[in-house]
């Protein structure tokens, strides 16, 4: 090829608008020892024709988990007395309902500079420096109890008295740290002028997805406002249609059809989405999430999906949910987070044309 033809070809490539999928950087959060799950994820990747990077999750026996747990206890001990678990209607003095400082004589719970930093290129730290100053210890590490709202500490006397979903186990701390580490990486990556990799899609390693997920995402993304932070492609334990559809009456024919989802799933304003098996964040959304999720005493205060749900409920994060789900947990092995070796949760979901679902129906 002559230099003139090469230059022309390169210019055409540079001028070509990015395909939607080029804007998406996909991460799969996975424990390094979960080779069976990674093998299955490779089958899923090949079926969908996608590329993703595996992000090594931290195991619950890592000494850092013990340090984080000790740090959480120190942060809590520096606060006022915990609430009695029998009076869950009370508010901790450090909490001010939705974080806007509505309670008299109570300073705002959240730092005032979050929005400014979210829109900047300032690097955001993953952990408080005081975590690293704590001594390391050997596992097993003790469970704590989960907080509610901004910083409601419920006194169950001991973590053993708390229901399973309110126990802040080492596995839940490890899950929080694994997800927030991916978000930290995306939040601190400088944006590309072309928009390449501007969206992070974060998956867990036990998901199934619709075969047309990319086409559906591209159509749904046309409905999103420019200032979106988060989109749940999969969720559980919540009726996300309560938030109302983003597009009230999607057209079924005509040119407008190209600018709205018509494949089956619709986009709704999030209400209280749980589970973290498939969600997307914008770069600004990742930065806003990171600033909230690393803020003492909110950091590592509960299961990470409960934290996401609270930030959505309290209006701190602008989030949307896809209904029906485009991705679901397969529930083919015991949960890495729930105690007792249970097979994930009792929440059941189905896909219209899931990759693994169709493989089970047509194995050959």
Describe the overall structure.
The chain is an alpha/beta fold and 364 residues long. It has helices at residues 3-15, 35-48, 63-77, 114-118, 129-132, 170-187, 213-221, 283-293, 304-313, 355-361, and strands at 24-30, 53-56, 83-84, 144-145, 147-148, 152-155, 167-168, 199-204, 207-209, 230-232, 266-269, 278-282, 319-323, 327-329. The protein has a seven-stranded mixed β-sheet. Strands 3-6-5 form a three-stranded mixed β-sheet, with no helix packed on it. A two-stranded antiparallel sheet has the order 4-7. A hairpin with a 3-residue loop joins strand 5 and strand 6 (152-155). It starts with a helix and ends with a helix. This is Glycosyl transferase family 25 domain-containing protein. It comes from Psilocybe cyanescens. Residues 82-106 are annotated as: Disordered. It holds the Pfam family Glyco_transf_25.
Question: What is the radius of gyration computed over CA atoms, rounded to a whole number of angstroms?
Answer: 22 Å
Intertermini distance:
44 Å
Shape, per Cα inertia axes: globular
Largest sheet: 7 strands, mixed
Unreliable spans are 1-16, 84-105, 253-262
Q: What is the helix/strand order?
A: HEHEHEHHEEEEHEEHEEEHHEEH
Backbone structural class: alpha/beta
The fraction of residues assigned to DSSP E strands is 5-15%
Average of the residue pLDDT scores = 84
Q: Helicity level, as a percent range?
A: 25-40%
Spatial order of strands in the largest sheet: 2-1-8-12-10-13-11
Oligomeric state of the chains in view:
single chain
CATH architecture of the domain at 20-78 and 130-247 and 263-329: Alpha-Beta Complex
β-strand number: 14
Compute the number of helices: 10
The name of the CATH topology of the domain at 20-78 and 130-247 and 263-329 is Spore Coat Polysaccharide Biosynthesis Protein SpsA, Chain A
What is the CATH class of the domain at 20-78 and 130-247 and 263-329? Alpha Beta
């Amino acid at each position: 090829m002559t230099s003139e033809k090469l230059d022309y070809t390169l210019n055409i490539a540079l001028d070509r608008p990015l395909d939607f999928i080029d804007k998406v950087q996909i991460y799969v959060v996975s424990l390094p020892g979960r080779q069976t799950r990674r093998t299955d994820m490779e089958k899923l990747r090949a079926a969908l024709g996608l590329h993703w990077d595996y992000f090594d999750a931290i195991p619950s026996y890592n000494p850092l988990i013990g340090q984080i747990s000790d740090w959480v206890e120190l942060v809590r001990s520096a606060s006022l007395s915990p609430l009695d678990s029998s009076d869950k209607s009370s508010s901790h003095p450090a909490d001010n309902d939705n974080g806007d400082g509505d309670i008299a004589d109570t300073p705002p719970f959240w730092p005032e500079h979050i929005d400014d930093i979210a829109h900047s290129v300032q690097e955001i730290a993953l952990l408080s420096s005081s975590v690293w100053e704590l001594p390391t210890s050997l596992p097993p590490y003790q469970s704590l109890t989960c907080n509610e709202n901004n910083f409601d500490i419920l006194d169950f006397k001991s973590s053993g008295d708390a229901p399973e979903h309110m126990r802040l186990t080492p596995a839940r701390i490890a899950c929080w740290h694994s997800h927030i580490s991916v978000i930290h990486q995306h939040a601190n990556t400088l944006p590309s002028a072309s928009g390449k990799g501007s969206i992070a899609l974060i998956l867990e390693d036990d998901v199934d997805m619709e075969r047309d997920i990319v086409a559906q995402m591209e159509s749904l993304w046309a409905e999103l406002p420019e200032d979106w932070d988060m989109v749940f492609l999969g969720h559980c334990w919540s009726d996300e249609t309560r938030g109302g559809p983003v597009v009230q009456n999607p057209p079924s024919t005509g040119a407008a059809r190209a600018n709205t989802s018509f494949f089956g799933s619709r986009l709704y304003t999030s209400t209280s989405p749980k589970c973290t098996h498939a969600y997307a964040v914008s770069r600004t959304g990742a930065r806003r999430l990171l600033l909230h999720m690393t803020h003492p005493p909110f950091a590592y205060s509960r299961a990470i999906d409960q934290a996401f749900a609270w930030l959505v409920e309290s209006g701190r994060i602008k989030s949307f949910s896809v209904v029906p789900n485009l991705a679901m947990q397969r529930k083919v092995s015991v949960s890495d987070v729930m105690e007792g070796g249970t097979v994930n949760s009792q929440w059941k979901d189905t896909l219209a044309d899931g990759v693994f679902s169709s493989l089970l129906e047509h194995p050959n």
